[in-house]
Design a protein that fits this description.
The protein is globular. Strands 5, 6, 7, 8 and 9 form a five-stranded antiparallel β-sheet that branches. A four-stranded antiparallel β-sheet has the order 2-3-1-4. β7 and β8 form a beta hairpin. The two termini are 27 Å apart. The chain has one domain. It has 419 residues and is α+β, with helices and mostly antiparallel strands. The chain contains ten helices and nine strands. Keywords: Heme, Iron, Lyase, Metal-binding, Oxidoreductase, Peroxidase, Signal. It holds the Pfam family Dyp_perox_C. Its main location: other.
Length: 419
């Protein structure tokens, strides 16, 4: 993929300095997360270490070819939210809101306080790799008399076997993914956006998730989910052939979406009590990977999570080493006509349900060029033939068009509203 990275923003703001003071040094060889310099907006770039060693000083520029929060390394915390436009807000109201949100996103990701409705919640923190990624739901186009510009990939997702979706916790006119390596920084950003939207858009739903904190392991590695599995080993990588065509909207999409993407969101509850009743070897057969190192079943010891998956391998008894209904077999691009997505999943744990079982699982986020060719065919197959589906419940859903990145002086969605 031929990508041009946006210039790194250097210098340390007062807020970043405040975050550094007293923070101490980040320990952990190879963590690659400390520093007072901006992240490179190049595909798949990590945080470069720099003098000071403060995790909170890492910055991701808001402006660039693509919105931040797609290609960057996954942060430790996420706030997800959707808003619905107020009746009568119309296109002018939406334009004003997106201008305010874009200015705020640029300031907060640079480690500066918001111009309006600053609540001092994150005043003594650095930017902490903060990213804000905005998306548009299908209903937004009807509410703003832009139905003729609604992209074709925003058609409703079909119903899948086993779905138990709560409409109140999905969809929405406007979506925002707020990632950061500090929970307070993410919550602060969401609260500021919510107050700035008052009178124009109201919060429809909100949820919070987490992943492994950078530096928590001796070296960078793929995070584990609440089932204890390394999750994301087979994610497409920017260096892969066809990566851009997998993730970003192509020529078959409207011109205003060029450089943008589609995002599918699913809140997936894991039936952890049932899962944890399985012995580890049974769990491994459901997934098709070893829990210890994430390597596919049949791989030699020490092969690691990125070892090639041999779906044809047979055991001494002539049976498949990776079972026919193993998750990695059913989800493999080779088994789905090449369909693939760039996933950024976060765990959630929201206490107990009325029956005493954990309300916990995965906030599934997948960026792709077109859900009709990515998420939909894969999920259709998973819902019918994946052994893992017995331990999952899809409880909320949404699909959003993610506009391209914002140039200096512009605002998110400007190509749609003014093109």
């Amino acid at each position: 993929m031929d990508e041009t990275a946006a210039p790194a923003r250097t210098g340390v703001t007062r807020r970043a300095l405040l975050g550094t003071a007293g923070a101490g040094l980040v320990a952990g060889a190879g963590a690659g997360v400390a520093g007072a310099v901006a992240l490179d907006r190049g595909p798949g770039a990590g945080t470069a270490p720099a003098a000071g060693g403060a995790l909170g000083a890492a910055r991701v520029p808001f402006h660039g070819e693509h919105q931040a929060g797609i290609l960057e390394p996954q942060q430790a915390r996420v706030q997800l939210a959707a808003f619905d436009l107020a009746d009568g807000a119309g296109r002018d109201g939406l334009r004003g809101l997106l201008r305010r949100w874009s200015r705020t996103a640029a300031r907060l990701t640079a480690g500066e306080p918001a111009e309006e409705f600053e609540n001092q919640v994150a005043l003594d923190a650095g930017p902490c790799s903060l990213t804000l990624t905005f998306g548009f739901g299908a209903t937004l186009f009807d509410r703003t008399a832009l139905a003729d510009r609604r992209p074709p990939g925003l058609e409703p997702l079909p119903s899948f076997p086993g779905d138990a979706l709560d409409p109140a916790r999905g969809d929405g006119d406007l979506f925002v993914q707020i990632g950061a390596d500090d929970a307070l920084v993410a919550v602060h950003a969401l609260r500021v956006l919510q107050r700035q939207a008052a009178g124009t858009a109201a919060l429809r739903w909100q949820c919070a998730g987490f992943a492994r904190t950078p530096g928590a392991t001796p070296h960078p590695m793929t995070s584990r989910n609440l089932m204890g599995q390394i999750d994301g080993s087979n994610n497409p990588r920017p260096a892969d052939d066809g990566f851009a065509a997998t993730v970003f909207a192509g020529a078959d999409q409207p011109a205003w979406l060029a450089g943008g993407s589609y995002l599918v969101f699913r809140r997936i509850r894991m039936l952890l009590d049932h899962w944890e009743a399985l012995p580890p070897d049974r769990q491994e057969r459901v997934i098709g990977r070893r829990k210890s190192d994430g390597a596919p079943l049949g791989a030699p010891a020490g092969a690691g999570e990125h070892a090639p998956v041999d779906l044809s391998a047979q055991g001494p008894d002539g049976g498949l080493v990776i079972p026919a209904d193993a998750h990695i077999r059913v989800a493999a691009p080779a088994a789905n006509g090449g369909a693939a997505m760039l996933r950024r999943g976060f765990s959630y744990h929201d206490g107990l349900l009325a029956d005493g079982s954990p309300d916990a699982g995965l906030l599934f986020l997948a960026f792709q060029a077109d859900p009709r060719k990515g998420f939909t065919p894969v999920q259709r197959k998973l819902s019918r033939g994946d052994g893992l589906s017995r331990f999952l419940r899809h409880e909320a859903s949404g699909v959003y068009a993610v506009p391209p990145g914002v140039p200096e002086g512009g605002y998110v969605g400007q190509q749609l509203l003014e093109g």
